[in-house]
Amino acid sequence: MNSATAKGKNNNNWDRSVRGFNESLDVSLQAPPLNQTHSRVSCPSGWSGNPSNTRCFKFVASNESWDESEKQCTSYDGHLAAVTSLQELFVLQKLCSENSEACWVGGRVINENWKWSDNASYWNESISPIHSGCTNQSCFSNNLTDLCTLMINGSASLVAQIRNKRRKRSRKLSNPAELALVPPSWKVFTREELKSITKNFSEGNRLLGDAKTGGTYSGLLPDGSRVAVKRLKRSSFQRKKEFYSEIGRVARLHHPNLVAIKGCCYDHGDRYIVYEFIVNGPLDRWLHHLPRGGRTLDWAVNEKVATSLAQGIAFLHDKVKPQVVHRDIRAANVLLDEEFGAHLMGVGLSKFVPWEVMHERRVMAGGTHGYLAPEFVYRNELTTKSDVYSFGVLLLEIVSGRRPAQAVDSVGWQSIFEWATPLVQSHRYLELLDPLISSSSSSVIPEAGTIQKVVDLVYSCTQHVPSMRPRMSHVVHQLQQLAQPPSLK
């Protein structure tokens, strides 16, 4: 986002770029009118004013990186845009919705390794300060640098005036859950709207999924586009602001291998999330609930599923700042499109899963831990390396067609690694392959060496010590190498 100044009698107050700010921006969380001592400005043609006509905002087309856009900003004698009230925030949202199909809003205090993401990263961080939960005045000293808010889009950058104001004293900031910004493509639905598009949540519209968390239904929007409406279990512990804040945070994450959030609804404790509709449904169904006569996922398709899923996770870990830990990577949360590309669902929303369901997942049948990393099971620690572990389990599930825990007559319940490890140790790699692939006359059977390389990656991802597990970007590279034709390797 760039910013520029409309010419006015206070123009001399706007002569510093945000990188040089040493004074603090007065950010109001209760949306009062701006300080009436600010002079009103007359916005130039093509610019829009804020509610009290003390600032002007405008879109300027820009496909450049943030650094390049910032140079354009200074050519307008301007600064990076910031807001001083919730009213101004609504102005920015309205401008964005009128000028582009999507925009993202974010910010952070610039004395904490400050760097804006470029237009390939979309989202940098929550708009609240790093210490927004702190109530001690020492957390917000006079030396705290400005809290800035920006919008970036691949085809548009917002340009805005900004007035810099010295904070007279330390002040306490509360967590601005109300400021969780909603991209224009992200809608707050009413319950009646959801009932209408899902035919009153009819059984005929119910999609396969985990009913323990509430159930998912297909829906048809008035414009003819299909969506999936996930109904969450009722919760008396989460308020509307908190729910919208979390949904808004996740809705800003855009990647081809993430399921996009289209909107949500909160109605007297009933919570719904509206997702884009992914036509081929959950991977879990293709691996374990294949309908009679249904198509088996062959080896090439499995490679594509694994690689595209890994790309989505790598985006969360490496491109989003701060990093996003998914926390719940499993076959039921991976949806397949018409070309069998993977789309990861439920990013950042594991906190909406009821406690009893999460506890059940921690200790699955027979005491196995399923997709969950040991550091989470035993120490409640979750990092990006926990996601890597879960991906490793899922990768072995894709290769073998077996669930993470499966009933076996001789031993009761058996984890997928208890089954696989003896085969790996005796180099019987072909026996690890999903029987539906190995017995199919139309499937190309991979060589034992290819299966071995995938299994080696599985065991690398699921090492007991988290720091020994690879980054997801490395996993993506390894899978892409395996998928190349022999002549290109």
From TrEMBL:
Annotated localization: Membrane
PROSITE patterns: C_TYPE_LECTIN_2, PROTEIN_KINASE_DOM, PROTEIN_KINASE_TYR
Chief subcellular location: membrane
Location of the C-type lectin domain: 52-139
Gene Ontology CC annotations of this record: membrane
One Pfam match: PK_Tyr_Ser-Thr
Coiled coil spans: none
Domain called Protein kinase: residue spans: 202-488
Protein's membrane topology: Single-pass type I membrane protein
Record keyword Repeat present: no
Name of protein: C-type lectin receptor-like tyrosine-protein kinase
InterPro entries the record matches: C-type_lectin-like, C-type_lectin-like/link_sf, CTDL_fold, Kinase-like_dom_sf, LRR_Rcpt-Like_S/T_Kinase, Prot_kinase_dom, Ser-Thr/Tyr_kinase_cat_dom, Tyr_kinase_AS
Record-level Gene Ontology MF annotations: ATP binding; protein tyrosine kinase activity
UniProtKB keywords: Kinase, Receptor, Transferase
